[in-house]
Amino acid sequence: MADLSVHVGALALRNPVMPASGCFAIEYSEALDFGRLGALVIKSVSPACRAGNPTPRVAETRGGMLNSIGIPSKGLAHYRRDVLPAYTGHGTPVVVSISADTVDEFAQAVAEMSLPEVAVIEANISCPNLEADGMAFAMTPETTYQVVSAIRRRTRHPFWAKLTPNASQIAAVAKAAEEAGADALVMGNTVLGMAIDVRTRKPRLGNVMGGLSGPAIKPIALRMVHQCHRAVRIPIVGCGGIASAEDAIEFMLAGASAVQVGTASFLDPGAMQKIIDGLADYCADTCVERLRELTGAVELDRHLSDRWLRFAQQSG
Fold first, then answer.
1. Residue 301 — very low, low, confident or very high, per pLDDT cuts 50/70/90?
2. Of the listed 23, 127, 228, 283, which one is catalytic?
3. Predicted confidence band of residue 308 (pLDDT cuts 50, 70, 90)
4. Whole-model pTM?
5. Better-predicted residue by pLDDT, 309 or 254
6. Is the pLDDT of residue 17 over 60?
7. Does the structure show a pLDDT above 80 at 313?
């Protein structure tokens, strides 16, 4: 049997497969064994209570889906009391995702959620920053460094910075997060998109625009994981359009140490378990003894690789 175990920083995982935040709930225990997953990533919580965005919040598209949920939240106290305990008894590391509107709120929320039963905190800095006219924290290296360093000052708990694919300087943003103290990166989130109903001539989302996820964004996410891997030394958790073991292996070859599965689980609640089985089959078929050795193992022409690295550094 191949060794599917991986490490994301100091965190040891039995395999690299985990859900993406917002695409997983306790009800999935009816479709898969939580004890088989690498980690359990819970839906983002914010310190402020939120009702979420206007409906409709989801729209199917060719090759994916658009969502504009708005991260509904009942606050941290409710989350600690009524949400978190259900995830901590499965022998699988729990990752808590935090969303906030300001730098200070982020730092305070992460400090409050730095609990013994929480293995890692995922700081969703791809969410809007009210102090920057709603632009996501991770859109620029400067705002990324500001929020990540503020979080690092408030906690010694392991935390991952979740970046946005909507940033134009992704390598520079990744480097800023590393320099500010993030233990790992999650690359990435949804791509901003829009759909219109041609009969009503109205946007298909109540919030007009939303995040595109699913197979349609996989090539974008894969490219960004590769760029981040070339720019930083900390681990990367890849996310974006992963629906099969082959997809997960591509992300690992591009530089990911682990992967998150989102939209695929809406179509098939057992998708993550099938991906884990597929990874074992791949290792057996290709004589791979340790899956973690695939991270960053894509074979590139040296001169072409150097040229693209310079291009990435110049364009951010």
1. confident
2. 127
3. low
4. 0.94
5. 254
6. yes
7. no
For the chain, the three-class secondary structure string (H helix, E strand, C coil) is CCECCEEECCEEECCCEEECCCCCCHHHHHCCCHHHCCCEEEEEECCCCECCCCCCCEEEECCEEEECCCCCECCHHHHHHHHHHHHCCCCCCEEEEECCCCHHHHHHHHHHCCCCCCCEEEECCCCECHHHCCCEHHHCHHHHHHHHHHHHHHCCCCEEEEECCCCCCHHHHHHHHHHHCCCEEEECCCEEEECEECCCCEECCCCCEEEEECHHHHHHHHHHHHHHHHHCCCCEEEECCCCCHHHHHHHHHHCCCEEEECHHHHHCCCHHHHHHHHHHHHHHHHCCCEHHHHCCCCCCCHHHHHHHHHHHHHHC
pLDDT of residue 1: 85
Residue 127 annotated in active site:
yes
